[in-house]
Amino acid sequence: MASAPHTPNDCRAMRFFRIEKPPGVPHIALKLLKFVGVSEVKAERYRYAPMFVAFLIIIALPKIAFGYPDFETSIIGLAELFFQTNRFVGVLLLVLYHDTLFTLIRDAESFTKLVLQESSTVSQYLIAKDAQISKITRLYLIALLVPANFYSYSPILSTLWKYYNTPGNDTTPEFILSMEENFYGLDIRASLDHYLIFGTIMIPTSFLCALVGTAKLVSILSVIKYCTIYFELVTLKLDEMKQKQSFHLEMRTVLRMHQEALHCADLLKELTAPIMLLQLILCILVWSSMLLYFTVSLEQPPGVPHLILKLLKFLGFGERLRDRCRILAMILAYVFILVIPKCFFGYPSFDVAIIGTAELFFQSNTFCGIFMLFFKKPKLDQLIERAKEISKKVLSESSPAIVQHLNVQHALIHRGTRIFCIVVMYAAHFYVFLPFLSTLYNLYVAPRDVNETVYYTLHMEENFYDLPIRTSAEHYLLFGTIMTPMSYLCAFVGTVKILTIWNLTAYCIVYFQLVQVKLQEVTRDNTFHQELKTIIEMHQEALGCAKLLESTTSLVLLQQLVLCVLIWSSMLLFFTVSSAKVAYLLHESSWEIQTPALRRDLLLMMLRAQHPVGISAGKFCFMNMEQFGKFPPSRNPSSTRQTPALFVIVTVDALKLKDLRNIL
């Protein structure tokens, strides 16, 4: 059977991914950069000029100069502006720093040429790694076509479907915009003709944003990964030279390889420094712009958590599919940036593993909790609707005393929510900048005349996909660039989760207080026969809200209880193991060759170290890992349900006796 002929587009795509040059250099990333105008040829660099002008005219100027219909839309529009500015200005910096970039590429080609001159494990490693990176890059670029097409076409297709399926006597359908902005006086939110003009412009603009952002991301990550491989090749060459005992033959080659790898690292630092600084500043601007969101005036009607509803909608608790996709992106960031590195890439020491595990439990409490609230969204919507009904009924039918109580409590809850948000905002800035400042301080006080490794302070304890983030400045900056928005996301999600549960609980309490105020008023005026039905209805609605609240938050509070116990257990393990480590180090300190006087002192320390160290609850319940591992006792003393805990205790005691016999 004859195969189908290849179309020109297929051939063009195949030519783009075809690599006919030696391995060891990010050729696909260079092709992508050349396509957007990052090139050594001056004429090709002019390609980026119309792209940047399109960004200014279609995105930046409308978002800055033409305002927004409401405050919430302005926050979303500014966040989109900062996000797209990070993309387009980042590539503009690559265009301006093209000399540094292509000097780095030439040095990389010289390095790989030196490696590929001989057939060895080093050259085979380079070829294998190059093929792996090229494959991942191809898959990423092809996979990116799916979300690019979705985000480009879905707003206009969804709007057209709703528009032509809306009954004639129904309200005007909502026009879904690709980006939140007012476009040069066009009525794009109410007029179909104007909306179609805007959509026709935004479809290619959305593809352009995806292209520019992909070019920036792929190029920087590829160059960083290849520079990492160069140092790995130097290490492999040293191991190979050590095994062959060929120091006198290959030492000069290793020195040259190391020198060129260091030069590539210096060029990479010079190239990425302004781009990473820009990304850091824009992440802070996105986060700080939320302060405007938290300082909105008190909204009416009272009795409903308006601020929490805005926060939940911003997080992805909306009615539109486009809004709900936000929470999916948030969960994916949590999985790939926190869960996978903490679970599968290990830790440098046991102490760090305990801290990293506790951090994982803590963040899991935050993200899994908000995800459970998302699954309980129907119940949450019912609770909000019932709260609105109670508020409406109280404001329309109740006496001034009850209305005043509702207004006062509403203002108190709203004020407390705003204060908590602002405090968390400044605390988030502190935790984002503190690791960077601590690292800069360590670099500043480190001695210059001593070859000493400087360890970098991490935002969270983990090994990030085997990158040397604890000792390499480039990889630490890459990790910090990723963790900066992730830290803000953790703070935001945790804040929304806490405030949602607290606000809903506080408002349910207010509803019962309204019943109490109504009862006091009826008792004082002796109007039971007139108001009894109203009181019963208010109490029934308050009970209904309480039942919906329990149904909404039960799973969230259960997983919070479980994870709090796990955090407590892991910290106890850190405490007890640190104490037991003293006995181990004493046993390994060659005590048997010391003088009798020193052996007596060491014996005393070993005996002291055998004493279990831990904490107690109220000084009567000793809290240790054996206690946590103990199953509930059964009526039969010989039951095997206590076997695991007893086995741990017996094993520990046996090890202690064995160590004591060795000492004696």
The pLDDT mean sits at: 77
- Oligomeric grouping of the chains: single chain
Rg calc: 32 Å
Largest sheet: 2 strands, antiparallel
Number of DSSP helical runs: 19
| Class by alpha and beta content | mainly alpha
Strand content: under 5%
Helix content: over 70%
Strand order of the largest sheet: 1-2
- Low-confidence regions: 1-10, 615-664
Overall number of strands = 2
- Name the shape in a single word: flat
Structural domain tally: 3
Write the layout of secondary structure elements.
Blueprint: H1 8-17, H2 27-36, H3 42-45, H4 48-65, H5 71-96, H6 98-116, H7 121-164, H8 192-244, H9 247-294, H10 306-315, H11 321-344, H12 350-375, H13 377-397, H14 400-445, H15 473-525, H16 528-587, H17 596-609, E1 615-617, E2 621-623, H18 625-629, H19 643-663
Antiparallel strand pairs: 1-2
Structure notes:
By secondary structure, the protein is mainly α. The protein folds into three domains: 27-294, no CATH class; 296-580, no CATH class; 589-664, no CATH class. 77% of the residues lie in helices and 1% in strands. The chain has helices at residues 8-17, 27-36, 42-45, 48-65, 71-96, 98-116, 121-164, 192-244, 247-294, 306-315, 321-344, 350-375, 377-397, 400-445, 473-525, 528-587, 596-609, 625-629, 643-663; strands at residues 615-617, 621-623. A two-stranded antiparallel ribbon has the order 1-2. Helix 4 (48-65) runs antiparallel to helix 5. It is flat and about 105 Å long. It is a multi-pass membrane protein. GO terms for molecular function: odorant binding; olfactory receptor activity. It holds the Pfam family 7tm_6. It is found in: Cell membrane.
